Amino acid sequence: MGVSRLLFLLPALLVAQTAVQHEGLSGLELDNGRVRLVVLNPGGAFASFSLKSGNRMNPFWDPSRMSREAGGRPRTNISTGHFLCVDGFGPVSADEQKASFPGHGEATRLPWEVLSSTPRSVSFRVTLPKVMEVLKRDITLAPGEQVVLVESEIESQLDFDRPLLWAEHATAGAPFLALGKTVVDASSTQCQTKPYAQKGMRTFASGENFTWPKLGSLDLRQTPAKAGELNHIGCLMDPTREYQYVTVLSTDQRLLYGYLFRRADYPWIQHWMNYPANGQYSWGIEFGMQPYDMTKRELVAMSPLFGQPTFRWLGARAKLATRYLMFITEVPASFHRVDDVQLQDGKLTIQGGGQRVELRTAAKL
After folding, report:
1. 76, containing H or E segment
2. Per-residue pLDDT band at 73 (split at 50, 70, 90)
3. Which residue segments constitute the domains of the chain, with CATH numbers given?
4. Spatial CA neighbour of 340 closest among 183, 186, 184
5. Closest CA to 309 of 210, 163, 205
6. What is the pTM of this model?
7. Per-residue confidence band for 5, with pLDDT thresholds at 50, 70 and 90
8. Which of 139, 133, 135, 134 is closest to 116 using CA atoms?
9. What average pLDDT does the structure give for the chain?
C-alpha cells in the first residue's frame, strides 16, 4: 500500500469515542459491545460502568444524580463514581490550605489531554502543576470483554525524592448499594478502624486493630441493616498474594463488579462506609498506596502500620507505573460471596461458595 493511501485511511482508523454528557458534566463513552464506560473530562473519573445487555444498572456512586432525584438543588460533582486521588488523598494540612492546594489532589479538577483514542480505548495525559508531576493513563476495553485494563504512570519533575499519595477512589452507590443486600469481599488481612477525635455518626471505636472481615461480632462484608452511620477502616492487602482483589456484589440485583491489581502497586485499601438517613448511600473501596484519607504529615507519622509503609516514595525525576483490571458481570441468584479472583489462561475467574463465574480476557497484569 502506498504512503498516500495509508495516510488517507489513517483518520478512519483513529475514530474517537463518543462524547457524552453525564449529569451536566462532559465525558467520553467507551463501548466494546459488551460493556459501556463513561470517563469524565475534566478529572478522568469513571462516572458509569454497565453491561450492554441484561442488568444495565450502573453500580457507581453518583451524588449529582442522587441530588437531582431527591429534588435537591442540581449540582455537578466531578468526584463521582471511581475517581483518581493523586498526589493527595483526603484533607489538606493548614499550610496546604493557605496555599490553595486541593483535597484529594489536583487530578480530579484539571482537564486531561487526549493523546489518542478509539471507540474502545483512550490515552490521557495531565500535568499537575502544584506537585510538579505528569500523569498518563491508558484505558482499554478489548472487543467482546467485560474487563477493562487501566494503566497509569506518574513522573516527577522535581530533583528530590518525596512521599507520594495515590488512591483509586472506587465507590459503589445507591440504588445498587442497598441496606442488607450488598456484600463486599477483598483479599485483605490486618485492618484498623480509622482514628478519630470526634465520634459523629461513627459507630466503630477509634484506632482498633482487627482481622478482615470480623470486627467483634460484626461481619463487615455486609451492608448494615439500618441507616444512620459513617465509618472508615484501613486494611492491608494480603502479603502472601501477588494479585489482590476487591468486589462489590448486589444480591438483590445479581450484579457484581470489582478489581484485580498487583499488591506491589496498591498494598492498602480504605473502606468508606457512609449510610446517611437520606438514603444516599456510598461505600468507597479505595485501594491505593496508603491506608487512610489523611494529610501527608499524618500518614508519614504513622508509618509503618502492620509492618508496611503508609505511603510510597516517588524518586527524583523518577516514574512510577501501576496497572489494574476492572470488571462487571451478572451472577447466579445463589451467588452470595466471593472467595477468590484469579487471572489465568485468558480467563478472569471469580469463585465463591463453591461456584464460579468466568470472564474471558486477553488483559494481563
Report:
1. none
2. confident
3. 16-334 (2.70.98.10)
4. 186
5. 163
6. 0.94
7. very low
8. 139
9. 94
Using the predicted structure, report yes or no on whether residue 41 has a pLDDT greater than 60. yes
Average pLDDT over residues 241-266: 98
Banded model confidence at residue 67, pLDDT cuts 50, 70, 90: confident
Spatial contact of 339 and 352, defined as CB atoms under 8 Å apart: yes
Quick one: which H or E segment has residue 299? helix 296-302
DSSP-assigned states of every residue in 225-279: SSS-EEEEEEEEE-TT-SEEEEEEEETTTTEEEEEEEETTT--EEEEEEEE-TTS
Quickly count: other Cβ atoms within 10 Å of residue 127's Cβ. 15
Q: Omega before 291 cis (within 30°)?
A: no
The Cα–Cα gap between 77 and 82 comes to 12
* Mean pLDDT for the stretch of residues 235-239: 98
Grid cell in block for residue 264: 506491589
In angstroms, the CA 267 to CA 270 distance is: 11
Q: What is the dihedral of CA 316, 262, 348, 41, to 10 degrees?
A: -40
C-alpha cell at 203: 459507630
Whether the pLDDT of residue 214 is over 90: the answer is yes
Residue 137 backbone class (left: φ over 0; alpha: ψ -120 to 50; beta: rest): beta
Q: What is the mean pLDDT of residues 292-309?
A: 97
Place of cell 530533583: 159
